[in-house]
């Protein structure tokens, strides 16, 4: 929920909106909610940081001070939200509330493994002595998990491209 800190009525509407959300689902424990104070550099502050943080703490929400103009706080917010999503996936949740994340823990782990791979052999999970058939087999197996139509994990598209490049490089050599 974003609110403009210089408009108190806007803040109050957002608070009511969050409470309305609870009426439509019983599974709000699995939601990740962040209260984001926007336009913090505008200067005309009606809702103080203290009031915003106090509200978020009471409700168990994350709280961020942001500025779309300067970018202040935006990276921190996305890193925290992404961290919570990853934590949920690691504990086996593929859904947050009624929202499907679009990937499993296995798919997220493969994206991380490929991102951290040292070379093309490491990307495909094969040895230097692997045959072309073994390389193709490893590629097909990973393709099923990484294809952008099947995996919406952050970084999956780049991992899929790296997988394709690794296969091409190894089959050409």
Describe the structure concisely for a colleague.
The chain is mainly alpha-helical.
Mean pLDDT: 78
Low-confidence stretches: none
N-to-C order of helices and strands = EHEHEHEEHHHH
Number of strands: 5
Strand content: 5-15%
Biggest sheet strand line-up? 1-2-3
Gyration radius from CA atoms, angstroms = 22 Å
Oligomer: single chain
Number of helices: 7
State the separation between the terminal residues, measured CA to CA. 52 Å
Q: Globular, elongated, flat, extended or rod-shaped: what is the shape? A: elongated
The structural class is mainly alpha
Considering DSSP H and I runs of 4 or more, what fraction of the residues is helical? 40-55%
Biggest pleated-sheet summary:
3 strands, parallel
Keywords:
173 residues, mainly alpha, two-stranded antiparallel ribbon, 7 helices, elongated
How is this structure best described in words?
Helix content is 54%, strand content 9%. The chain is mainly alpha-helical and 173 residues long. It has a 3-stranded parallel beta sheet, sandwiched between helices. Strands 4-5 form a two-stranded antiparallel ribbon. Strand 1, helix 1 and strand 2 form a beta-alpha-beta unit. The longest helix is centred in the N-terminal third of the chain and has 17 residues. The protein starts with a strand and ends with a helix. The relative contact order is 0.10. The mean pLDDT is 78.
Write the layout of secondary structure elements.
Blueprint: E1 2-4, H1 8-24, E2 34-38, H2 49-59, E3 62-65, H3 74-90, E4 95-96, E5 99-100, H4 105-115, H5 120-124, H6 132-146, H7 156-172
Parallel strand pairs: 1-2, 2-3
Antiparallel strand pairs: 4-5
Helix pairs in contact: 4-7, 6-7
